[in-house]
Design a protein that fits this description.
The complex is a heterodimer. In chain A, the strands form five sheets. In chain A, strands 2-3-4-1-5-6-8 form a seven-stranded mixed β-sheet, sandwiched between helices. In chain A, strands 7-9 form a two-stranded antiparallel sheet. In chain A, strands 10-11 form a two-stranded antiparallel ribbon. In chain A, helix 20 packs antiparallel against helix 21 and helix 21 crosses helix 24. By secondary structure, chain A is an alpha/beta fold. Chain A is built from 28 helices and 16 strands. The termini of chain A are far apart. Chain B is of the alpha+beta class. The relative contact order of chain B is 0.30. Chain B starts with 21 loop residues before the first strand and ends with a strand. In chain B, a hairpin with a 4-residue loop joins strand 3 and strand 4. Chain B has a six-stranded antiparallel β-sheet. The chains are: A alpha/beta, B alpha+beta.
Chain lengths: 747, 106
């Protein structure tokens, strides 16, 4: 094909060079190492988008041709499928891409010039059925026999030349993990040709269309064909040394190879499979399996807290430092300065702080998946989740949602049944995510001050409550609006392997990036909006602040170190301050505070001013307006502001309360936290955080939907905003009721 | 290297009457069987076939009960290459295993 200038109607949508890129489609069964191969061929440079008109993820990467006359290719990773002819979305997408009628969004459609089929050497016969279906499409094909090392260890030798002869197309072997065979793959792509199998694929040719094939018979015929091709290409080397192929016939069952010295052990069932079987006997044991599962999950969450804490502290420090520098550099009180520090930097910081936990969770999940354990866990969980109408496949999304519901909801793509998938999407945000943790820490600290064991127990209780709310809501949904039988579970269990850290790191990097983009843009906008709402309109400081400042100036000019502050709570507002009032009986209008240093008094004045500003800002007025709604839950206007602002992002609650109560959002400062804890309501006496209120708040935060990015992803993945609206109403409704009941009972 | 022509571990005539098939769920660990029919929705059956549980597929039960785990290796009636290696492992819920009917060699 002649090369065409990109400006002349190639319409490919990338500003690529003058050489037209061709499409290389990558297909294969799940668990064949297709993703690993894709990562190897593409380096880290791949773009992720969707296949046009679907929510199915499409990965696409430019692959360099590397030789004279060769052309770059766009490698499109199609979803793993067992067959092209199934009635599921993944198969349909693969069919259409191979036919040239579908492409990733933003990419020109076109019939692929080369189809790469990745097959698993340890399961070659079954994989060859997909190869047969691809051959029927008459496109230049290259077969990549991956995991060749594993097959060797299992006692199987695959001869790529014989396989190539039988299929009439190029075949290369590879070990995508180590990168062996990659060069052959690139050469093979260039030399790909339309296959001409020695024995034609059943269902190929004119009679196939007419037959429409009784589906069962067609599948068996294809399988028989595949077995025969497999027989031509594979050889048993069980009787031979795995390393040097020395014939061990006649030697004892166990021993050392006389040629190369490696140990061998001949069994009827191959060693690798026996190992997998033995491990499965434990991991899928009714009792032991559950214990191991619980242990692994506990370890997962423990490491999330323990390990992620360090990078989270660093990030917090970096953002605090940045804010400090900005404050120093930019003029005091300038709009741009405030916008940058309190809006932009705070917004970015609020997202980035969760990156360590999210990346760590994805890393660990990827490692677990690579070992093959997650498939077993999903199967085990199927029994537990099924009474609630959820499939075992919902396990990984629900697990991921413990870090952040965003990627968790995106992971529901793995759930085959539409109604089960919708149910999982709807309930996933109930589960405790990272953003709720700062709120839990604050509230359990208030409730169980000095009793860390009880606080920890309350923490665990919150997690349990979230999970319970999720599964019971799923049950209700599946009995009412999403009624249906659900599919019985079937799942392929890969052999146990040592995980590839490299793959896990690459996956983590990409998922973390997706999180940053999705959540980051939303949260940033919200933080800027919040900043604006709480900073405007600007109001004059109240008289008592002015009065206090005058006293401070007078004291400084007299070089007094200490002053006595008299406060007149004229409009019912009283500030809290560390230290007991000397006299403060109801009915008395003057409150004397103990003798303060000039510095303390100065800070006190700052806080009074900031609180006044907060109370009179748009956010403050909104809080007061909304407050009656939260009256039954025991929240005053200050808490109402906090709850409202959390709607954007939960973790914002703590800093918002700090701003409203203490005039500063430096929530790390012990003094500030103490102030928040002892803050008083308008009557000057009752604490903002009474026992009942704190419980009510805690329950509310466990259950409420307070995350705009999550709502957006729900709408996108479910295909309609009505599901997101339902999620919002349901979760906030449950949260409201539960918090109200708790407050009324405990007050 | 010569391709080994090992005999099939199970040898059955393909025309067994359906009456002698039993549900997969009733088999014990270690038993071998040949798949005869599946009684479930077309979509589920198609997926099972594509995963390797097609008619005449040879299976060995690795775990019985809930869930049921089988290894699939080879097809009854195909000239086979190496049946001491390769194949896949598939986990099924008991509900699924009750709908798959197999015949067990004597």
């Amino acid at each position: 094909m002649p090369t065409t200038d990109s400006t002349h109607g190639n319409g490919s949508g990338h500003g690529g060079g003058p050489i037209e890129a061709r499409i290389i489609a990558l297909v294969g069964n799940p668990n064949t190492g297709k993703t690993t191969l894709f990562n190897r061929l593409s380096g880290l440079n791949h773009k992720t988008s969707n296949f046009a008109g679907t929510t199915l993820e499409a990965r696409i990467a430019r692959v360099r041709a590397g030789i004279e006359g060769g052309r770059d290719g766009d490698l499109i990773d199609l979803p793993g499928i067992y067959s092209l002819e199934l009635d599921q979305l993944e198969s349909r997408v693969a069919r259409e891409v191979l036919a040239g009628t579908l492409a990733p969004r933003g990419h020109a459609i076109g019939v692929p010039e080369v189809v790469l089929v990745v097959v698993d050497a340890t399961n070659l016969a079954r994989n060859l059925t997909l190869v047969g279906e691809v051959i029927r499409r008459r496109l230049p094909t290259l077969i990549v026999v991956n995991m060749i090392d594993l097959a060797q260890r299992q006692g199987l030798t695959i001869d790529p030349h014989k396989l190539g002869e039988a299929l009439g197309c190029g075949v290369v072997t590879s070990n995508a993990r180590t990168g062996e065979g990659l060069d052959q793959v690139r050469i093979g792509i260039r030399a790909a040709r339309i296959p001409a199998p020695v024995r034609p694929v059943p269902g190929d040719g004119p009679q196939a269309a007419a037959a429409g094939a009784e589906a069962g018979g067609g599948a068996t015929a294809l399988r028989v064909w595949a077995e025969e091709v497999f027989a031509l290409a594979a050889a048993d080397n069980v009787g031979r040394c795995a390393k040097c192929n020395y014939d061990l016939l006649g030697l004892p069952r166990r021993g050392k190879c006389p040629e190369c010295g490696t140990r061998y052990f001949r069994t009827e069932v191959t060693a690798t499979e026996a190992t997998t079987d033995r491990i499965d006997r434990v991991l899928m044991h009714p009792l032991l399996g559950v214990i191991v599962f619980a242990a692994i999950m506990t370890g997962l969450f423990w490491s999330l807290f323990a390990l992620a804490a360090y990078p989270m502290e660093w990030i917090d420090g970096i953002f605090g430092w940045t804010t400090g520098i900005l404050h120093g550099v930019l003029p005091e009180g300038s709009i741009l300065g405030d916008l940058l520090t309190d809006g932009v930097v705070a917004g970015i910081g609020a997202t980035v702080i969760f990156l360590p936990q999210i990346c760590l969770l994805f890393f660990l999940i990827s490692v677990l998946e690579d070992t093959g354990y997650l498939a077993r866990a999903a199967l085990l969980m199927d029994r537990v989740l099924r009474p609630f109408g959820l499939p075992g496949h919902a396990f990984v999304p629900l697990l991921s949602s413990h870090a952040c519901a965003l990627p968790g909801i995106m992971a529901t793509r793995a759930i085959p049944d539409r109604k089960e998938r919708l149910a999982t999407i709807l309930v996933a945000p109930f589960v405790t995510c990272s953003a709720r943790l700062p709120v839990y820490v604050l509230l359990t600290g208030l409730l169980f001050a000095g009793q860390p064991a009880l606080a920890a127990l309350a923490f665990v209780g919150c997690y349990a409550l979230g999970i319970a709310a999720a599964v019971f809501s799923a049950l209700i949904a599946r009995r009412t609006i999403l009624r249906g039988k659900g599919r019985p579970m079937v799942m392929e269990l890969p052999t146990y392997k040592l995980p590839s850290i490299r793959t896990a790191l690459i996956t983590t990097y990409h998922r973390g990036w997706v999180f940053l983009k999705n959540a980051g843009t939303n949260i940033l906008m919200i933080c800027i909006a919040l900043w604006w709402l709480s900073s405007y309109p600007k109001v004059e400081p109240p008289d008592r602040v002015n009065g206090l400042r005058q006293e401070i100036v007078a004291a400084q000019s007299l070089e007094q170190v200490e002053i006595v502050v008299e406060d007149a709570p004229e409009t019912g507002k009283t500030a809290s301050f560390p230290g007991e009032p000397i006299s403060g009986l109801p009915g008395r209008t003057l409150v004397h505070y103990p003798i303060l240093t000039v510095e303390q008094a100065s800070r006190f004045a700052d806080q009074l001013e900031a609180r006044h500003q907060a109370a009179n800002s748009f956010a403050g007025r909104l809080g007061k307006f909304i407050q009656p709604v939260f009256e039954p839950l025991g929240y005053d206007w200050q808490l109402s502001i906090g709850v409202l602002s959390s709607f954007a992002a939960r973790e914002v609650f703590v800093s918002t309360m700090a701003v409203v109560v203490a005039g500063t959002d430096d929530a790390e400062d012990e003094g500030v936290l103490a102030q928040v804890a002892t803050a008083k309501r308008d009557d000057g006496v009752t604490p903002v955080f009474t026992r009942a209120t704190s419980w009510s708040l805690l329950i509310y935060y466990v259950l409420a939907m307070q995350c705009l990015p999550t709502l957006a992803v729900t709408a996108r993945e479910s295909g309609s905003w009505k599901w997101a609206a339902l999620q919002l109403v349901w979760m906030c409704g449950i949260a409201y009721l539960a918090a109200m009941v708790v407050y009324q009972v405990m007050k | 290297m010569t391709a080994a022509t090992s005999t099939l571990p199970v040898s059955l005539s393909p025309a067994l009457p359906a009456a002698s098939s039993v549900p997969l769920a009733s088999l014990q660990r270690g038993q071998r069987a040949v798949i005869r029919e599946t009684r479930m929705s077309t979509d589920d059956a198609a997926l099972l076939r594509a995963m390797g549980l097609c008619d005449c597929a040879l299976i060995t039960v690795a775990r019985s009960g809930e869930p049921c785990v089988v290894t699939v290796r080879g097809v009854d009636g195909a000239k086979c290459g190496c049946h001491r290696a390769g194949g896949c492992r598939i986990g099924l819920s008991r509900a699924m295993a009750e709908r798959i009917f197999v015949s067990v060699p004597a």
